[in-house]
Write a structure and sequence with these properties.
about 0% strand; elongated; about 130 residues
Length: about 130
């Protein structure tokens, strides 16, 4: 069974959101007050970006467990992010805008990965160990 376009679109949207998030985080790090630990911000962002990239790859190759992991973390991100960026943080104005794009992208990726065509395809990929 061929990979459905909904999976391709979902993963592409996830990658686009990650790229925009990288720009957003870079601006946030560059404009952070001096007392913020930039190395911690850089390492933390790098770790999260690496995990997201690996998850995108696993979603693309058809690992159903990765789809479930994305759904758990995606729903958590939506529930906790609905109030906007952390008001205690110092954010570059672009970060606030990209926060809402990221929320919308997460919803769209979840929908794309769980439409019937995607679900059938993930279930057909059971040949992995």
């Amino acid at each position: 069974m061929d990979r459905p376009s909904s999976v391709k679109i979902g993963v592409a949207l996830m990658l686009a959101s990650m790229a925009l998030g990288l720009v957003s985080v870079s601006l946030n790090i560059a404009s952070a007050p001096e007392h913020y630990s930039r190395p911690v911000m850089i390492v933390g962002s790098g770790v999260l970006l690496s995990i997201s990239g690996a998850l995108a790859y696993l979603l693309y190759v058809g690992k159903n467990w990765a789809r479930i992991v994305f759904a758990i973390f995606g729903v958590y991100a939506i529930v906790t992010g609905v109030n906007g960026p952390n008001p205690l943080g110092v954010h570059h104005p672009f970060v606030v805008t990209t926060h809402w794009f990221g929320m919308a992208a997460t919803v769209a990726v979840l929908v794309a990965l769980f439409v019937p065509a995607s679900s059938r395809w993930y279930k057909s990929q059971k040949t992995d160990a």
